[in-house]
Every structure is written in structure tokens, then in C-alpha cells.
Amino acid sequence: MRIDQQLVHLSLHAGSSDGGTVGWTYGDRIAAREIRGLVAAVNGGFKLTYTNVGFMSGGHVAVPLKAGLASIVTYTDGTTDIGAWEAGVPSPRKAVFSVLQNQRLLVDHGVAAASVSSCVVRCWGGTIGLLTVVARSGIGITATGQLVWAAGEHLSPGALAGALIAAGAVRAIELDINPWWVAGYLYPHHPAGPSPAPLVSGQRGIAGAFFKPYSRDFLTFVAN
Question: Which of 40, 61, 114, 202 has the most CB atoms around it within 10 Å of its CB?
Fold first, then answer.
């Protein structure tokens, strides 16, 4: 899925367990003010108790940010960039609104991380049954500033990186993995409001499709 940032902006939501329900501009469900322009929503990153994660939004910190981690950085002007924290992002000329950090960059300078084949579970997240090919998701940014989200039910880290690179990503971050937590939706609009349409073939899905309280963080894409 490609996201044109001239038309659509990203918002980082805190989950009811990961982050808690208090103090967030964007909380554990799609906000009422997002409904009219809602285009898509996808899963966020690893559980916030996992190693090498960070989470901040609207000046509220759930997990302190760490230098070098792969980061989705959204600025107060509504634009989003992806890069290594304090080694590419944030821009010194922009005010930061939110940051989601998850491990190291999966793709940098258009090249997959060297560890995608040699260090699958330790470097790219614990999997159900220690499998190397599982449901995975990630988001990258192209040289022209488009965001690209990719996911599948049977991916290795290398396959996910390859898909993002093929779509033009020059930097990318792995998001959540395992079938219970990888899901995305498009939201066609009807007179009664938007309804979720699954993005990933065979996904287990998220109960309530992010309209009901969800325990984990997630990302929405809303028309500007």
C-alpha cells in the first residue's frame, strides 16, 4: 500500500494496554475526528515491553526513545519520515509530534539489513514456534517521500525487506509480526460510515477493526 503524503497523513495511536488509555491525543480506537477522512489503518510495532522499542506522542512518553533505533517520526506539520533516531531523524528544522521505534532499520539506503538472514529471531523478533517465516509487516519511505506499507502471512525478514525495496523504499522499519498482530484495513465509505476491508490475504484480523478499543498501538491514515 502506497501513501501519498500530499493527500494523506499518518497518526500513531496508543493501545489500551501498550501505552494505556490516559494522556494520548490518539488513543486505543479510531477517533471520531478521523472518521470522515479515514482511508486505512494498520498494526503498529512490537509490544512496548519488548527490547529495543520506544513510544512518544503529543509530548507523552510510554517508553523512552533510544538513539539508533528505527523510528517512524511524525512532525507537527503532519509529515512523516522514517530513519534511525539521532542518525537521520528527527529533522532539526521541524517539531516532533510522535515517534514509534522498533528495532533497527530493516532497510537503509535502499539495502536490506545484513542480519535479515543470519539473525532472524534474535534481531527481528520472537516468533510463534521460533519460525523464521511468519506473518510480518513493515513500513518504508521512498526517495520522494511516499510511505509504503507491506505485510503478508508468510514472510521472512529478507522477503519483507525485498518487497519494500521493490516498492521503492530507501529506509524501512519492521512493524509487528506473528499472525495475531499483523493486519490492515482499507475503509470504503458508505452513507452509514466507513467499513473495514482487509488488506492482507488470509489475515486473522483485529477484533473491531480498530473501531473498538485495541490493546496494542496502531497507525491510521487519514485524508488531509
Answer: 40
Rounded CA separation 147/139 (Å): 7
Residue 160's nearest CA partner among 197, 200, 130, 187 is 200
Cell reading at 86: 539521532
CA quadruple 181, 183, 33, 63: dihedral sign: positive
| CA-wise closest residue to 159 among 124, 116, 190, 130 | 116
How many domains does the chain divide into?
1
pLDDT in tens, 107-153: 999 999 999 999 999 999 999 898 999 999 999 999 999 999 999 99
* pLDDT bucket at 22, cuts 50 / 70 / 90: confident
Q: Helix and strand tally (H, E) in the chain?
A: 2, 19
Q: What is the DSSP letter of 120?
A: H
Residue 135 CA from chain centroid, whole number: 14
The whole model's pTM is what?
0.97
CA distance 99 to 106: 17
Residue 113's alpha-carbon distances to 58, 103, 106, 133, in angstroms, are: 31, 11, 5, 17
Beta bridge partners, 82, equal 72
Neighbours of 191 (CB within 10 A): 4
The domain of 60 spans 2-223
CB atoms within 10 A of CB 69: 21
